[in-house]
Amino acid sequence: MDRLPPQRAGQANFWRHLSKLERDALTRVGTERSVEAGEAVPVRDEPGITVVTAGAWIRLQAGSARASRSIIDLAAPGDLVSALHPTDPTGPQWLGEMADIHGVVLARGRILDVAQEMIPIVLGDLPHIRHLIRTIQAEQLHFARQLQAVRRLKADMRLSRLLLSLLYRFGERPMAGRNVLAPPLSQADLAAWIGAGETSIGRILRQWRGDGIVSSGYSWISIEDRKTLRDLANSAAVPYARYPAPGKGRSVSGSAASAQPRRVAGGDLAADLPPGMHARERADGFRG
Q1: Which residues lie closer than 8 Å to 274 by C-beta, 6 or more apart?
Q2: Given phi > 0 = left and psi -120 to 50 = alpha, else beta, which region is 91?
Q3: What is the spatial distance between Cα 282 and Cα 279, in angstroms, rounded to a whole number?
Q4: pTM
Q5: What's the CA gap between 64 and 69, in Å, rounded?
Q6: DSSP H helical segments within the chain, as ranges?
Q7: Tens digits of per-residue pLDDT, 222-243?
């Protein structure tokens, strides 16, 4: 059976929602630099604005030790590395007193740093940026709450929900004749994100590969049977709900730029999507 075209990402993309004026302003007051895989990007000690401008994927996490780290979120090309702090240096209450929050670069690329002391000027002169950050913060908070709400469920249910959310947020990319989730996440990353052991995640993925639900390899995973994965994600106690994202026709107010989806993926999926997921317009593929 022919594969469906890649799923387009649904999450609001910070850089693509900015007007040229807003991009130029951030570029003038910021510093652009290259980052390499494995590099740490501080995000908590001096909260500013850091945007992934090209190529890189950056994992936001608390802690550094492989066995004890906790993944908070992920930034794709065009995203804020963290939307948690620019409008509130103390950070959101749900993070509590987590220490050592930082980004880890998963794939090389470039980022734009805007220092903390410039944030009041940027947000004062460019109010749409404040509005956009607030929108992304709300999406990020909803996603974090979704994962927290299912911590007591079985690991396979938590993993299925994470994969579906990653599919909807970041979309897919073509690779060697198949569609794979756009983020380059390892098995260890998936385990740290849902609070499970790597052994458990490995066992679940082996079972799912045998059942034809997923395919996977080094830092990639492909969802082959979305309907079955959706069924695994559902629970009578905690029904599955997709990650919220801008729908077709929704724009982010206050900008000269219209709401444009990111280009990490191509077309739409017309069937076997989690409840509430709608078809979206097609776009060319992107490989970060």
Answers
A1: 164, 168, 226, 230, 233, 240, 241, 242
A2: left
A3: 9
A4: 0.77
A5: 6
A6: 20-29, 119-125, 127-149, 155-170, 187-194, 198-210, 226-233
A7: 999 999 999 998 877 777 766 5
